[in-house]
Amino acid sequence: MTIFLQSLISGILIGGVYALIGIGLTIIFGVMRVINFAHGDLLMVGMYGTFYLFTLFNIDPFISIVITMPLMFLYGGFLQKVFINRILGALPQNQILLTIGMGLIMSNGIMLAFTSDYKILSTDYSSSSFDILGISISTPLLISFAITAGITVVLYWFLLKTDTGQAIRATAQDREAAQLMGINVKRMSIIAFGLGASLAGTAGALISPTYYIFPQVGSTFTLKAFVITVLGGMGSIVGATLGGILIGVAESIGGVYFGSGWKEVVVFVLFLLVLLFKPSGLMGKSNT
Amino acid sequence: MKPLFKNTTGIGALPAITGLLVVVLLFLFPRFVENTYALHIMILIFISIVMGSSWNLLGGYTGQYSVGHCAYFGMGAYTTMMLMQFRQIPPWLGIWCGMVAALVVALIIGSICFRLRGPYFVLASIAVAEILRVSALNLKNITNGAEGILTTEIPPLKIGGALITDFSSKVPFYYAGLVFVLLVILVTWLLQNSKLGYYFQAIREDQDAAHSLGISLTFYKNVALSLSAVLTSLAGSLYAVYVGFIDPSTVLALDLSVQIVLICIIGGIGTIFGPVIGALVLVPLSEALRSNMIGESLINSGIVKADSAFGSFLTENLSHAHVLIYGVLVVVVILFMPDGVLGFAKALAARKRKEVV
Amino acid sequence: MFGKIQATALALILALPMAAQAAKVKIGFVNSITGPEAPIGENLTNGVTLALEDLKKKGIDVELVKEDDTGKPEKSMAAFEKMATRDRVAGIVGPYSSKCANAIAKLAEKYKTPLLIPVASKEEITRQNLKWTFRLSATTYDYATILLDMATSLGKPRTIAIINENTDFGTSGAKSAKDYAGKKGIRVVAEEAYAPGSPDYRSTLTKIKSKKPDLVFMVSYVADAILLMRQSREIGITPQAFLGAGAGFATVSFAKEKAISSNVFSSTQWTGDVNWPGAKEFNRRYIAKFGKEPTYHAATAYESMMIMAETAAKAGGNQEKIRSALKSGKWNGIMGEVKFADYEGYTNQNKHQMLVEQIQNGVHQTVYPPKYVSKKPVYPFPGWR
User: Fold this and answer.
1) pTM for the full predicted model
2) Domain Leucine-binding protein spans what residues (chain C) (predicted)?
């Protein structure tokens, strides 16, 4: 029982960070219908930012997100404006390859600049934990879970209550109609990619204290983000949140009961099952 | 019942003769070139053409963008190697089993993934390939897991007691590769001029319209996938036997799937020679970048001094930057040559012709 | 069209200027400079850089042909073919990873070009009766045996849990540990192979904790080693000893994490304080030049390059002579005594003495075998602080 509870709790905590990555991807996909293969690399850029803010200026990773978030937003917006906006009408496989190419540039550019060494961001709370009923809970993960929850709430508010948020949602629902209604679709795309990038960067910042950093770190997270996004229904933020936590838990519990080698298979099988029986995702509208 | 394959277009005499000449020259190539490095590059090019052209049948002609084609490459590679290494079945028989294995996997994947469209299909294809990769890692008793399979010996090929080849040089692999290349090009060409190919392209252009014309989407998509998978497995088998070592992270990796797509996009999808051009551009280019030939030749030719700052930058840093350059190239091609090198060249030629007139 | 482009592509490959044949020795070095293995590959490159400096002092001018294999076997083959046929190097040092070494060992035989593998540790590489392939380092099996030998000499462990990364090195390391534990009468109570790069191993570790193993044996690369130990501390696993099979546990960045690295044992090919000739000096110079401590990878690459270049220079670049000189030669440098021998099914395999180091106060100390000890081992594990 302890084992089950332990895996459930740590699964949920790590799932919170996954959710943040998934939400970023789902916003990008919702607005632009582009699958962003460079999503993990955006996360990696966020990690490097956090790492250097910590080592050079001694800014705690959980505090430095107030710097990383806007920087990553600008960076994402820049990528969208300069590259992706040029091929919005192009064939989908070209869009995929463009993001793959951008990912390669980011990870290898970082490698040239900072070498391929693993960087470890060690804070004094990196391996601290406390015990509840024999279940150990990692302090940094709990903090990052709380921050994730906060960010998600703010994001909901932004998308539901502000004019820009509503314009983004309108663009996601129907691009042409939104254009006809006088919404600047290109601008919305820039904001959406910026948001996606800043969420990915934030996720990178949040796991930095408990994880490690190297130029190719992104690829694992890109795949996870795909799974989460489809699980939740592409474009659905509630879905991505649930999807992230679900994947965290599935990995954690799958690792215990099927062996750690098979936990990825558990995740992908879950993914295929959802695709088969509810292709629009857990929270998507079933009109596919 | 109408025949599925029917040649409707004649071929001009000039292209036919040039084509034949090229084929003959390629067949004679190993007789004149003894440089094994050149042969190695040629074999890699052949493998790339085979995998690119196979993907092209599904992605280029039918419009189903699979980013999980390493699954079939890996099935070919693993089946052939496992049979050869653990069951002493020679590779020229194992390759057929590899094709069957790829076909089975393709039918399973098709039945799952073709219920989905567009981006969902892309992601599902990745997921299935990943499941295969992790399974190959964990089924240690069958696949030897992460340790991979190393060839100890390839049995010599004998027909009626006469030794055809003992696989000690690169030449047999060269010819195998060349034959596979001709095979996929032939299949593509037949397809392009057949009713089947027409159905494929109808699905690519507009699925719903094709459906309303009475074309069974699921059936023809599965036909395209099966064809594509079986041919991709050839590339996998050849790679495995040639390199002599496989493991999940080389033959079942997402990287490989991406590379397969890249070959086609760079060359130009939905054309017979697109993947050929793509492979001819990408393989030598990545080799030149990897071995830093560009920097080296700049220094050797005396343009840049080896001990100058720029020279040491070329030798020290550029060798680390080849994947970066590769990435930049991908971005540039997508942004400025959306129809691939072949499409770009055609457009350029058309513009030239206009200027002359 | 097809033909023309093909011809140009070939011309491009073949017509690039052939490097002039110089009087100095020309040695090839193939390594993972980019790709997933790049972080470790960098250590090898640094080791070779130092070797070139020392060779120059000895009057041997090495013209180095450096090739990147990006961690892929077919790329390492291309690199080998290029060096053997186009650059015509006298001998080749490398590659880093076992899968690349596997792919090119046979090529060495074909081109009669001596290949000296510094650190790729898969057993099979030198078990194929290949006359032109030499290996400096000990094999994967030895990473496990030396640790269990030490544990049984210091205490009476009865059970062991094995956690390994699901990669080539990881699986074969785990297999060796299981095999040797059986011989030593230690029962394996848990076996977990994990996919590298996962941020959360807590559930697996909880499962292992419930089995109460006496020994926890881990095979992990750089960063996962830190993650596993951090989370072991969180979960509160307290065996008699944590044993790490080289790789991640032997790195400086791991040792620096004092909270989690203290008293962890690690098997290694080399340590900075071992009393082999020149080892301490190498350690000092490496730190001065590259700003970090050398790993055993760097030391093996250094020694391999020294041996290959010196032999090649003496033999005047004649490859047959180099091969027989490597076969009959004996060296004693920073890797201790080196001799390429045929034994127990191995060919041209150096019977290298593995070492065990323990992290005490953030520093790796050599603690086993007794002959090389710099500090006394702390055993059993005193618990988390």
Assistant:
1) 0.86
2) 24-361
